[in-house]
Write a structure and sequence with these properties.
alpha/beta, Aldehyde Dehydrogenase, Chain A, domain 2, 6-stranded mixed beta sheet, 17 helices, 16 strands, about 15% strand, Aldehyde_DH_dom, Aldehyde_DH_NAD(P), Aldehyde dehydrogenase, oxidoreductase
């Protein structure tokens, strides 16, 4: 079944319906939240194979095994994590009343209450994970939700819309499908919060649209996540792990290693380690079911253009092609891992997020040079350090800023459900995952209770002031 595109004119009515239901149901018990999360878990688990098939159809080729752990198991695991922690997360937090009011019986607490209706705009690279993963925490916080999946994965978007309609009332969760015009209208709705995952360029437009209605936003963007290879790194292990993170989903990951910084004397060794990693994990590429295709012709042409630009500007191009396959004789949008050696800062590869199997390698003499290079650019979503020198590692961590860090691997910090995930600066704002994500989608509402005693009068807060005021009388003046 193909779900027809949503008419942008219907979006306001969809939002109004959800907000009305949200207001009418308040206060809503935690059992309702757990029930919605149970339905979300069942939706994904019972339809995992169909969702993987839809993603494979949208990409042209995408490993079912990869999709099962990146998009299916990750969502169900995170939804269970949220469900099992709703009670502690939602418990009011006692705070200290100001002195001396606390001694006189004043009380203060913070309640973490649902915001209302939250919009979720998700991208194409992990079309199930990045739509339904944030949804789990949005539901855990007691909100209703409207989803807008990417139009670049139409089969997956249509199936998500169909499954959501079967498992949730439209007053709880609903899906808007369609092209960029639908997305533009969606981002302009007066939500109570808006979550966007995608490029920094589009994130700016989404934030601008949301600002017209003063809608708070969570922006999960991307950027150029660097890998710093320290002098004490185990090269074989480093190469294998970089290959795993860079070639998964054909590099179409917001956290994929975007460029390498390696000691000059270790450059040849790092390249050899990358070649070994590719040979071990992807001995062939063109007919390899484990290796994803680039999502569409436009993205494929963009990646080819990045390589051509680097070649024209003097970069050395090394295509790691273990089986010596002819990629020019196919239209399946496959690319080998392509190294750009000696990249210059004026190359496209060093100016924009690559989002594909292209990997520039820059060299450095001392670790401070590598740190300065990272700090001279936009703050990345992820930063990766390989090495066994604790002092060097701490120097990198202490002197750089990034959304998150993985040490001696890449990407894996996003897998920690119990810790916040998000960007900083150009790589985004806000978090989900962990208790921080629950609070992101909650309104922290302060409740102050005044004692029976006339505190304002006793404290001289209310007039008359001066020598004839209450304080003066209390002091006998």
């Amino acid at each position: 079944m193909t779900v027809p595109p949503t008419d942008p004119a219907q979006l306001q009515a969809m939002l109004h319906r959800q907000r009305s239901a949200f207001e009418a149901a308040r206060p809503e018990g935690l059992a309702a939240r757990r029930d919605r999360l149970d339905r979300l878990i069942a939706l994904v688990e019972c339809n995992g194979t169909a969702l993987c098939d839809a993603m494979n159809d949208d990409f042209g080729n995408r490993s079912r095994q990869q999709s099962m752990f990146t998009d299916i198991a990750s969502v169900t695991g995170f939804a269970r994590y949220c469900r099992d922690r709703i009670g502690p997360w939602a418990r009011p937090d006692k705070r200290s009343a100001p002195f001396p009011l606390g001694l006189l019986g004043a009380k203060a607490q913070v309640r973490f209450e649902p915001k209302g209706v939250i919009g979720i705009i998700s991208p194409w690279n992990f079309p199930v994970n990045l739509a339904l993963g944030p949804l789990a925490q949005v539901l855990a916080a007691g909100n209703r939700a409207m989803l807008k999946p990417s139009e670049l994965t139409p089969s997956t978007a249509s199936l998500i819309a169909e499954l959501v309609a079967a498992c949730f009332a439209p007053e709880e969760v609903t899906v808007a499908t369609g092209d960029a015009e639908v997305a533009k209208a969606f981002s302009a709705l007066p939500f109570d919060h808006l979550v966007f995952t995608g490029s920094t360029e589009t994130g700016r437009k989404v934030m601008q649209a949301a600002a017209k209605n003063l809608v708070p936003v969570t922006l999960e963007l991307g950027g150029k996540s660097p890998v710093i290879v320290g002098r004490g790194a185990d090269l074989e292990r480093t190469g294998a792990r970089i290959v795993t993170g860079k070639m998964m989903n054909a590099g179409q990951i917001c956290l994929a290693p975007d460029y390498l910084l390696v000691p000059r004397r270790m450059e040849d060794g790092v390249i050899a380690a990358l070649e070994l990693g590719v040979m071990d994990q992807y001995p062939t590429l063109l007919d390899n079911a484990d290796y994803a295709s680039v999502i569409d012709d436009r993205q494929f042409a963009r990646l080819q253009g990045i390589v051509d630009d680097a070649r024209a500007k003097g970069g050395e191009i090394i295509a790691i092609n273990p089986a010596g396959e002819d990629f020019s004789a196919t239209n399946r949008r496959r690319m080998p891992l392509t190294i750009i050696r000696n990249p210059s800062d004026d190359m496209q590869a060093m100016q924009e997020e690559i989002f594909g199997p292209v990997l520039p390698i820059k060299t450095y003499e001392g670790i401070d040079e590598a740190i300065a290079y990272v700090n001279g650019r936009d703050r990345p979503l992820g930063l990766y350090y390989f090495g066994e020198d604790a002092g060097e590692r701490e120097r990198v961590l202490a002197r750089t800023i990034s959304g998150g860090v993985t040490v001696n691997d890449v990407v894996f910090h996003v897998s920690v459900d119990d810790a916040p995930f998000g960007g900083v600066g150009a790589s985004g704002m806000g978090h989900y995952h962990g208790p921080e994500g629950f609070r992101e989608f909650s309104h922290a509402r302060t409740i102050y209770t005044q004692p029976a005693l006339d505190v304002a009068g006793l404290g001289g807060v209310k007039p008359p002031y001066g020598t004839k005021g209450r304080i003066a009388k209390l002091l006998g003046r």
